[in-house]
Amino acid sequence: MKHKKKKDVRWEYIFGVNPIQEAINAGRRKISGIIVKKGATGKPVLSLISHAKRCNIPVDFSSIDKIARLADAEGHQGIVALVTMPRLTDFDKLVERAISKPKSGRPTLCLLDGVMDPRNLGAIIRSANAFGLDGVIYPAKRAASYTPVAAKASAGAGEHMSLCPVNNIAECVRKLRDDGFHCVALDAGGTEELDFAGISALALVLGSEGKGIRPLVIKRCDKVMKIPITGPVGSLNVSSAAAVTFHMASSR
């Protein structure tokens, strides 16, 4: 597969039917071409091939071994696509866009303080998209980023979301409060159960899989809330906790 190389353009292979399908639908990335396993069957793959051809995207066929090497991860479903790197969002522009939402919708952002597993990041992005959040903010370094593995875990939802890597989550919390956002840290040790009534602009902060939210970030939040759990296991995985919280935030 060939494409015209430009010095300022970087490429990567994404994999799986849904991420590739949504990359085409969203139109944010340039797609050089798609490689499919020889003899591929199944309605989802065949439908994607037809869609790609209608969009004038080259489709080649190759061995499953080559596709596995290009994907370099499990769950590739026998299909990869060579695409430009994801389009990321500037923090100030994201906040401005969220605030300018129609009055019928509450601006809602998610901040992740050190989520390390790209599959958790992808699952959180998927939930954020499903429940209408305006964007997901995460550390640019020493944390999971929107890689092809995260794209697969998001089922392609990341192609439609505003994704914003930043240098300092604690500083972002401070800026959001200055801009009128009510910043809520989600922690099992929270003093209040989830309740977002009366909040006009909401920023939800979730922590890493092991250590949770760092003390400085918690200190800068307006409140620390918890999910009411009645079962014997008193905690949820961060991506599950995010899904519950996003649902409650969207149910005004």
By DSSP (H or I, 4+ residues per run), the number of helices equals 9
When the domains are counted, the total is 2
Which second-level CATH architecture of the largest domain applies? 3-Layer(aba) Sandwich
- Poorly predicted ranges (pLDDT <50, ≥5 residues)? none
The coarse silhouette is elongated
What is the CATH topology descriptor of the largest domain? Answer: Alpha/beta knot
Strand order of the largest sheet: 7-6-5-10-8-11-9
Keywords: Methyltransferase, Transferase
InterPro entries: Alpha/beta_knot_MTases, Ribosomal_eL30-like_sf, rRNA_MeTrfase_TrmH, SpoU_MeTrfase, SpoU_subst-bd, tRNA_m1G_MTases_N
Enzyme class: transferase
Protein name: 23S rRNA (Guanosine(2251)-2'-O)-methyltransferase
Q: In words, what does this structure look like?
A:
The chain is α/β, with parallel strands linked by helices and 252 residues long. The protein folds into 2 domains: 11-84, 60s Ribosomal Protein L30, Chain: A (2-Layer Sandwich), CATH 3.30.1330; 91-250, 3-Layer(aba) Sandwich (Alpha/beta knot), CATH 3.40.1280.10. 35% of the residues lie in helices and 21% in strands. It has 9 helices and 11 strands. The strands form 2 sheets. The chain has a 7-stranded parallel β-sheet, with helices on both faces. It has a 4-stranded mixed β-sheet with strand order 1-4-2-3, with helices on both faces. The longest helix is centred in the middle third of the chain and has 13 residues, at 118-130. It is elongated and about 55 Å long. The termini are far apart. One of its GO terms (molecular function) is RNA binding. It holds the Pfam family SpoU_sub_bind.
